[in-house]
Write a structure and sequence with these properties.
With 494 residues, the protein is an alpha/beta fold. It has 16 helices and 14 strands. The strands form three sheets. It has a seven-stranded mixed sheet with strand order 3-9-8-7-6-4-5, with helices on both faces. 43% of the residues are buried.
């Protein structure tokens, strides 16, 4: 096929296919990539070998009846005409596309959007005017949310026990961009007042993490939303009030939907963890009811970060389909493990929301933060009669001893496990253990780490869905072994 090319006015480029070549092409219908308004192909069937190789063939129309959504790998999308392309490029960035469709996958793609809409449904915001956006990791989602709302001269408030990567972004980037950051103890019943005292006129972000990583302390989201409203007014009354953001990765929407709380604007999930659930993807989601926030977030994603790729979007959707049943098993196993740990002589303290000893659990009374934060997939109060209450799969416990003694003991306990895997991350079907002081939170200064309750001897466990008794026995054996080795060492020294 050859082309005659003409230029008009130095701007418009038109392409004319020579008539003799058009006549040599078959007009038989084919399933190629570009269709007109009526769904008919705009292209003739190629007859040359090279053009057949370069053309895009599609299955018949009945293919869209497949039960599972397809994976759209295309980086670009065909247009009906030039005006169609102009409309797409002129649109304001938003969480989702409209009936005009897609133009370029850096601005969104079908598989990504299908998964985002599913997470929006889990977050309880479908049809809200905002939406959910997916990123290539949880950290990408966090940094995109912060970059879309903070600028030089702004102030933000974060908890001491914020995720290590978030803390590193603040220290290594945000403060060097001229953003002022304060850290507070945001956990428990005193958390909201601690946030209140840190608020300023130039505060633009109030950030929470609940349950906290790795201490499993609970933030009073209702209280935090209230103190922000009392200081600045509601979002509708004062569009410039701070954005209240919540990282709810430990709980997932199965237990806690942050956007159900008045005053909370943004919900963040590291979908690498429970939503994906199989340690085989990196993904993050950011959800909001606010079209204004989603516009800014989409602008950052389009120009600085990137949407989650189609294959991982598909895998994330597949993981979500079993989230409900996995979270039940995670919680059942975690309670058995936590009860053993609390009773073990080498354990100083065990933090698990399902234990009555948890500092934020007062037995399910109306002001109980644990009771208000763990809905266990229940949609209605009546569901409590047949849906078991669970409290997630994350446990933190502190081995006895101080300073270097506790540090070494904790490392030995982690290294002695034979069923639980020594690895970072969490929320997968297999159990994982890590020592935050020497691993995920090593970049946080010790004084800041201790201020947030992250002791030298603290160990974090992500309890999987293995047989519960196997996990209990593995952890108990490792703890017992450390005690026995220390006893033998003392005898040799004597």
């Amino acid at each position: 096929m050859t082309f005659a090319v003409t230029f008009r006015s130095g701007l418009a480029l038109t392409r004319r296919v020579k008539k003799s070549n058009l006549e040599s092409l078959s007009t038989t219908s084919r399933h190629l990539s570009s269709s007109g308004h009526g769904g008919e192909s705009k292209h003739a069937t190629p007859t040359s070998f090279a053009t057949k190789c370069a053309s895009l063939y599609h299955p018949s129309g009945g293919a869209n009846r497949g039960l599972a959504p397809p994976v759209y790998f295309g980086s670009t999308f065909t247009l009906n005409d030039a005006d169609h392309g102009a409309r797409l490029h002129d649109k304001s960035e938003a969480a989702y596309t409209d009936q005009d469709g897609f133009v370029y996958s850096r601005w969104g793609s079908p598989t990504n959007e299908a998964c985002a809409r599913q997470i929006a449904a889990l977050e309880g915001i479908e049809g809200s005017g905002g939406g959910t956006m997916l990123f290539g990791s949880g950290m990408s989602g966090i940094t995109s949310a912060l970059m879309s709302t903070l600028k030089t001269g702004d102030h933000a408030v974060f908890p001491y026990t914020v995720y290590g990567g978030t803390h590193e972004f603040l220290k290594e980037f945000a403060i060097h961009w001229g953003v002022e950051v304060d850290f507070v103890d945001g956990a428990g019943k005193d958390g909201p007042e601690n946030y209140r005292r840190a608020l300023r006129e130039n505060t633009r972000v109030v950030y929470c993490e609940t349950p906290a990583n790795p201490t499993c302390r609970i933030t009073d989201l209702e209280g935090v939303g209230r103190v922000v409203d009392e200081r600045y007014g509601s979002r509708s009354a004062n569009p410039g009030r701070p954005w209240v953001m919540v990282d709810g990765t430990f709980a997932t929407p199965y237990h806690c939907r942050p956007l159900d709380f008045d005053g909370v604007d943004v919900s963040i999930q590291s979908c690498t963890k429970y939503l994906g659930g199989h340690s085989d993807i990196l993904a993050g989601s950011v959800s909001s009811r606010s079209p204004e926030f989603c516009h800014g977030l989409a602008k950052v994603q389009k120009l600085i970060t990137a949407p989650l790729n189609p294959m991982d979007s598909y895998l994330l959707m597949r993981g979500i389909r079993t989230l409900d049943v996995r979270m039940q098993r995670h919680g059942e196993n975690a309670l058995r493990v936590a009860e053993m740990l609390e009773a073990h002589p080498l354990v100083e303290q065990c933090f698990y929301p399902g234990l009555s000893s948890h500092p934020d659990n007062n037995g399910g009374m109306d002001d109980c933060l644990v009771a208000r934060s763990f809905r266990s997939g229940r949609d209605h109060p009546d569901d409590a009669s047949h849906m078991k209450q669970t409290h997630g799969g994350m446990i933190a416990f502190v081995v006895k001893g101080g300073g270097d003694v506790a540090l070494e003991r904790a490392k030995k306990v982690c290294e002695g496990l034979r069923v639980v895997n020594l690895a970072v991350s969490l929320g997968s079907v297999e159990s994982l253990v890590e020592h935050p002081a020497s691993m995920t939170h090593a970049m946080i200064p010790r004084e800041d780490r201790l201020a947030g309750g992250l002791e030298d001897g603290l160990i974090r466990i992500s309890v999987g869905i293995e047989r519960g008794s196997d996990l209990v026995e593995d952890l108990k054996s490792s703890l017992d072994k450390v005690m026995e080795e220390e006893r033998m060492g003392e005898q040799r020294a004597a």
